[in-house]
Amino acid sequence: MFFFTIRRVIASVFVLLASSFLVFALCAASFDPLSKYYTQNPRPPESFFENLREQLGLNDNFFVRYWNWLSGALTGNFGETINGTPVSEQLGGRLLVTGRMILLAIIIAVVLAVVVGVVGAVRQYKPSDYAFTFLAYLLIALPTFWFAAILKEFVAGGVNDVFGKQVLFTIGEETPGLSLYASGWELWSDRLGHLVLPTVSLALLSFAAWSRFQRSAMLDVLGSDYMRLARAKGLPYRRVVMKHGLRNALIPLTTVVALGIGTLFGGAVITEQVFVWHGMGEYLIQNGIGQNDINVVLGWLLVSAVFVVVFNLVADVLYAVLDPRIRLS
């Protein structure tokens, strides 16, 4: 198990290096840091552009620029924004905001996908299976922004009316200024109230697709020879399903979840716009793409790539835990 994990870690490092190269190449071809000066009236003289190119290192060849950026990124230095603010300082705080939403959404989506997928497979073609199938396809068909807007417009108001006070919040990740005088449970309960709807929006849309994979994998396992053999030996059906079937059926879901992290980041960008969260999504749209700031976009894409690679590494390790034969591959 130890050497299996080491091999996967080394492979992940090479994947991350390749990802960083592709990210830098795409951004270098798509963004021009000098573009905002071209439309100024009067237009700056050519000497201004030459000095700025030299200052930003744009006169260096592509590989020198890539190495300078990568060596800085490895030490946590993602360069500066067009306003002169270090990207790492802004990106770190926004990552904490988005990270708690994504991690909680993953946990909720995985738990729901496993439960719904197993119930749907065990009770195939029963009313509960049809109900879960209808719900899953309905959620898959809904656009992210529209589903988030429905939760914001109708669910929040209904829940708040039931409790007679504002329990669920629809704007921001915490009440503005509350952290200046509040602490402990008062502060965390406020953040929890802001966290519920964006997390539910992100989790349910992911759970819908993941539950279909879990149901399909569970159906394949239930029809396998070793499951029938376990039943023939007299083992209780519940024990056969939970101990022997579910463990093997989790392997395909692990793959889907690991590959879906990138999709979650994309969904988080839209969700943050709907709920006005000041996280990585807003940072990418407003500070990166909106201001044509290549360092912001590079930092965002690299952090996203790290998350995808890390979760795929975790998935590889979980494969070996769920099926020991994989360790020998």
From TrEMBL:
Keywords linked to the UniProt accession: Cell membrane, Membrane, Transmembrane, Transmembrane helix, Transport
GO CC terms in record: plasma membrane
Record membrane topology: Multi-pass membrane protein
Domain of life: Bacteria
GO biological processes: transmembrane transport
Annotated compartments: Cell membrane
PROSITE patterns named among the record's database cross-references: ABC_TM1
CDD domains: TM_PBP2
Annotated ranges, domain ABC transmembrane type-1: 95-319
InterPro entries documented for this protein: BPD_transp_1_N, MetI-like, MetI-like_sf
Residues making up the signal peptide according to the UniProt record: none
Residues spanning the membrane: 101-122, 134-151, 192-210, 249-270, 297-322
Family: Belongs to the binding-protein-dependent transport system permease family.
Protein name: Peptide/nickel transport system permease protein
UniProt source species: Klenkia taihuensis
Organism phylogeny: Bacteria, Bacillati, Actinomycetota, Actinomycetes, Geodermatophilales
